[in-house]
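Support request, please re-run this one:
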Amino acid sequence: MDAPVCSRLAHGEMATPAAGRGRSASLAATMTDEGKLYYDHCKRILHLLEETDAIIGGDRGTPSGLLRLTVPTAFGRLHVLPLLHRYMATWPDLRVDVSFSDRVEELVDGGYDLAIRIGIGSPDSRMISCVVAHHVGIFCAAPSYLDLRGRPEKPDDLLSHDCVVFRSETRRHPWRFRDDDGSWANMSGRVRLRFDSGEAIRDAAIAGVGVVKLPSFLVQEALADGRLEQVLSGHETESVPIQAVYSSKRYLSAKVRCLIDLMSTEWTATRRR
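Re-run finished. Output below.
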């Protein structure tokens, strides 16, 4: 059934919402918008059919089939991919389609089974979020910047510094520190640059633009070779959750459930070492 449908769709022979306008020039004119919409709906239907097959009998607790996954660029490359290689070696019937993105993808419209995101807050009501690990950010800057502007010794000192931060259309990214009374306080300096890429923020810090807060996996090499210098290490800052996010409307298949369990076990154990 799948091959004839794909073939007919590719040749523009399927009935579309614009079918009443005729099959010649009108179809060509509407294929860009309405054809794409039709195609996206077909993809979701096929995905639901796969899930139905899994529920009825194909999924007996063994990961198999196609897993559609979206992960942050740097974290995905450094931490998700090595884990994924082992996961696929364990389950030879599993195929994986991975998208690298630092944006908060729309799981429903994007057709993903699972998204790994860092510090996104609470997803909307259509999503279920599971915290699989935490990371604590490291404040750092280039030694050349610190020689010029001074080294902050307490959070309030950031007020006289330039900062490079994450940008987001849906949320703010305040830097939070624990006060002496145990409460959390927001603090940041003058924001000079915003990026939606952790690697871009790191590179800006190395170039001497300002102070940044980034996870250790992004800055550990630059700290080791002296391109970056850690500051404010004696002040407690808020940890950031690493979350596995999936649609609340989809059946939680073995391929998704087992990967979430593996991530939680592996990354928690790594953090304790």
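The radius of gyration is 23 Å. The chain has eight helices and twelve strands.
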